[in-house]
TrEMBL record:
It comes from Volucribacter psittacicida. Key enzyme in folate metabolism. Catalyzes an essential reaction for de novo glycine and purine synthesis, and for DNA precursor synthesis. The lineage of its organism: Bacteria, Pseudomonadati, Pseudomonadota, Gammaproteobacteria, Pasteurellales. CDD domains: DHFR. It is an enzyme of class 1 (oxidoreductase). This is Dihydrofolate reductase.
Length: 161
């Protein structure tokens, strides 16, 4: 099974502010949906709470040290259990948040990365990437339009070696 991460960040690596994404970009939401549908999505409790519901048409696995229950999700206390629940799928997606990205950036095989072509204020950041560890499998540029306030660069990165 391939362990992947999907994230959108600004040029100054902001991924969140006040437990929300400080942007609304339909093009990035479509990219996220395209690459996560039918795959297990693994997230931290705060990320789940910011989304507010289970994401449809994909198994939702929440990593949390504290027990809580919600319809249509599975709560686990460690990544090993999350990966065991995902073993029958070709790819599992880590979708956030900041703590999960920090802990597992060195362990994922693939990174779906949206770089929002601006700098914004935030309180949660994506870890600094060592670009020498990654091979660009694909890159797509999308200019800003009426619905998307910023230019976007979509990457699929594969870990080297």
């Amino acid at each position: 099974m391939t362990l992947s991460m999907i994230v959108a960040m600004t040029q100054n690596r902001v991924i969140g502010k006040d437990n929300q994404m400080p942007w609304h970009l339909p093009a990035d939401l479509a990219w996220f949906k395209q690459h996560t549908l039918g795959k297990p999505v693994i997230m931290g409790r705060k990320t789940f709470e910011s989304i507010g519901r289970a994401l449809p048409k994909r198994p939702n696995i929440i990593l949390s040290r504290s027990a809580f229950h919600h319809q249509d999700i599975q709560v686990v206390q460690d990544m090993e259990t999350a990966l065991a629940l995902s073993k029958d799928y070709p790819e599992a997606m880590l979708i956030g948040g900041g703590q999960l990205f920090e802990q597992y950036i060195d362990k994922v095989d693939r990174l779906y990365l949206t770089i929002i072509q601006t700098e914004l204020a935030g309180d949660t950041f994506f870890p600094e990437l060592d670009w020498t560890q990654w091979h660009i499998q694909s890159e797509l540029y999308r200019p800003a339009d009426e619905q998307n306030a910023y230019d976007l660069r979509f990457f699929v990165l594969e870990r080297c070696g």
